[in-house]
Design a protein that fits this description.
Number of helices: 14
Strand content: 5-15%
Number of strands: 17
Shape: globular
CATH architecture of the largest domain: 3-Layer(aba) Sandwich
Distance between the termini: 55 Å
CATH class of the largest domain: Alpha Beta
Strand order of the largest sheet: 2-5-1-6-7-10-11
Radius of gyration: 24 Å
Helix content: 25-40%
Number of domains: 2
Oligomer: single chain
């Protein structure tokens, strides 16, 4: 994406998008045949196949940035640890976590919780820089030479990222000054496009702002301009950019002193606090709603799973999650009864991958299904890394589902334009565009991302495990894969103009479908009798 395009896109992200076709309400739960929408047939499955069938509750762990446990659409479906007496400051169930009533926050300390953190590339660069910055590379050989080459790679990625966001920060500052100046000098906020373009800018800041505003409203197919609307979008984008400069790429920033653990001791498990709602609970609340928002309260939205209980595990800050926390969250989920785990996060480096791999294999040994978002960089995961993943040495974990994002749009536009993909690395696609779900304070919003596609799939898995509890995690994965609705014809490869068959983008070549999965699960159970 060109920098100028990115700037306009970010400035417009909090603006109302005019003239764009709106996704049908509840589309991810609708049916391809009945509703002519590529949802996962949730409503059809309940009305035609599951009515009157017995089921049991299934705990789904949401490993994320926190979830609002008192949201009107979630409070009745939040997991409660019945062995723990709330707020008595005693570990009643002796599991190592005090007052873990709804789950655990692995990025919390005694007094506060981590909000922002570095990207993993920043942490790696800081660590390697201390060792290799002043080393004579000609004096190195063997493993040290390889480590030095890795250091140079990490440095290049870090330097490029930091430089770009520092540049964006400067551009946004100039745009902000230009917007303020335009408003003052023009003397009004709303006007026709012709009138706005006829204004002669007083300086470079005004000229930059005038050009950006004109392009934004032209892209929205409007013949008028509202300066304050652009300014609002600009402010939101500037705040996001500032986080990259101040926290994500800041070598001097370290949030880990809040947690109080020894991060280098990766075997350490018992740290954190029980405050699972946040900060930064928007993403995790949205994910939880997709999986299990109350289907019987007449409010908000309907989640996919009707008998799921959400266990909240907080490991994701505004920045990159840490491997130690991810591994511990997986183990907590397994040890405390989760049968499905959703992980809507990812990163390009994993310095303690072996620790996470051990936790994945532990989950596999305990028959727990792990569902993971493929990522939003329109990258081919046959070439680029997205961690964590199912690849453990020369072995792929059998309890892992990697999920790409699909759109409600038909035919060639089915793969979301941002979604990562992989012929052998992504298992299946699921709805991940314009997904309406819960956000904190009893509110709702539509988000895009494989972060949304993963919980749709986790919800489907939860339904199968609820109505067919005899099926193993491996069998549930196989059912989801085999029952995926195949996409016919060719589709556009995300991030390109190239067209390929869907089987080039994922193993199943299709989109998750609960209706078909239930039918297949029923056949599998009948064959066992």
């Amino acid at each position: 994406m060109k920098k100028t395009t990115l700037i306009l896109a970010l400035a417009a992200q909090t603006m109302m998008v005019f003239g764009q076709k709106v996704a049908p309400a509840n589309w991810f739960n609708l049916d391809p045949k009945i509703n002519k929408i590529n949802g996962v047939s949730t409503e059809r499955a309940y009305s035609e196949l599951l009515t009157g069938k017995s089921s049991q509750k299934v705990i789904v762990a949401v490993i994320d940035g926190g979830t609002d446990v008192v949201h009107e659409d979630l409070k009745r479906v939040i997991w409660v640890n019945m062995l723990e007496v709330p707020n008595n400051k005693i570990d009643d169930d002796n599991n190592g976590y005090v007052d873990d009533v709804n789950g655990w926050n692995f990025i919390g300390g005694q007094e506060q919780s981590v909000a922002e953190d570095n990207l993993e590339v920043t942490r790696l660069y800081k660590q390697l820089k201390a060792r290799y910055e002043k080393v004579d590379s000609n004096s190195l050989d063997g493993v040290e030479k390889d480590n030095y080459a890795f250091y140079k790679k990490v440095k290049a990625i870090y330097t490029k990222g930091y430089s770009e966001y520092a540049m964006y920060s400067n551009i946004y500052s100039s745009l902000e000054k230009g917007v303020t100046s335009l408003t003052s000098n023009i003397g009004k906020d709303s006007m026709s496009m012709a009138e706005f373009k006829s204004y002669k800018p007083a300086d470079m800041n005004e000229a930059m702002a005038q050009n950006s505003i004109s392009k934004t409203f032209t892209a929205s197919k409007k013949n008028y301009v509202v300066i304050s609307k652009f300014g609002k979008g600009l402010q939101g984008a500037k705040e996001q950019i500032s986080k990259f400069v101040d926290f994500h790429y800041n070598l001097d920033f370290d949030s880990r002193n809040i947690v109080g653990d020894n991060y280098e001791v990766v075997s350490e498990r018992y740290y954190g606090n029980n405050r699972v709602s946040g900060p930064n609970g928007e993403h995790g609340t949205h994910v939880a709603g997709i999986i299990a928002a109350d289907r019987n309260n007449g409010a908000g939205i309907n989640g996919v799973a009707d008998r799921a209980e959400i266990m909240v595990l907080r490991v994701v800050p505004d920045g990159d999650e840490r491997d130690k926390d991810v591994a511990n969250a997986i183990r907590y989920a397994v040890d405390n009864g989760a049968k499905v785990v959703n992980m809507s996060f990812g990163k390009s480096f994993s310095p303690y991958k072996d620790v996470v791999d051990e936790a994945i294999l532990y989950a596999q040994s305990k028959d727990v299904l792990l569902v993971h978002a493929a990522g939003n960089d329109h990258k081919n995961l046959e070439v680029d890394n997205n961690y964590p993943n199912a690849k453990i040495s020369n072995y792929n974990a059998s309890n892992w589902i990697e999920v790409g994002a699909s759109s409600w749009k038909n035919k060639k536009l089915i793969p979301a334009e941002f979604s990562n993909y992989g012929k052998k690395s992504v298992d299946v696609f699921a709805p991940g565009v314009d997904i309406n779900s819960c956000i904190p304070e009893n509110k709702y919003a539509s988000y895009n991302g494989t972060s949304m596609a993963s919980p749709v799939t986790a919800g489907v898995a939860a339904v199968i495990r609820s109505y067919y509890p005899e099926l193993t995690a491996k069998e549930v994965k196989e059912i989801i894969m085999l029952s995926a609705v195949k996409v016919k014809g060719k589709v556009i490869v995300p991030g390109t103009k190239r067209k390929v068959k869907m089987t080039e983008l994922c193993i199943s070549g299709g989109i998750v479908n609960l209706y078909e999965a239930v039918k297949l699960a029923e056949i599998k159970m009948q064959n066992r009798k």
